[in-house]
């Protein structure tokens, strides 16, 4: 191996790198993401049974899913789900909750106030800024393109 030139080493390295399993990853993402969506639909159906209107059901469903995602992250379960589900676990609103809580949990040894809570807001700031900023841009584009209708 010491006598290899760069091209030979590159070919050797390419043979050793594991090939990605795209199809398996797509299936797992579909299953995990679909399961999260089914869970959200069950929550919506239950909230409708309480006689809530559409806006309250949508808000309540989002709140419950964020809480469940945060809770599962806090007890270490959501990270395991995300390892299997990939984008299927990252894209729903539970993935947003995970992205806020997960970094904060790394600092729990510093205490809940100066560790978890402080880090949660450090991480949440940029996420909220970009989320709100992109929603404003999408809203403006929506108004521009649907104004004539």
From TrEMBL:
The organism's superkingdom is given as Bacteria
Instruction: Cite the PANTHER family for this sequence.
Output: STAGE V SPORULATION PROTEIN AC (PTHR38450:SF1), STAGE V SPORULATION PROTEIN AC-RELATED (PTHR38450)
| Protein name listed in UniProt | Stage V sporulation protein AC
Q: Which NCBIfam families match?
A: spore_V_AC (TIGR02838)
**Species whose genome carries this gene:** Keratinibaculum paraultunense
**Pfam families documented for this protein:** SpoVAC_SpoVAEB
Query: Membrane spanning segments where?
Result: 21-44, 56-77, 84-101, 121-145
| Entries under InterPro entries matching the protein | Spore_V_AC, SpoVA
**What keywords sit in the KW lines?**
Membrane, Transmembrane, Transmembrane helix
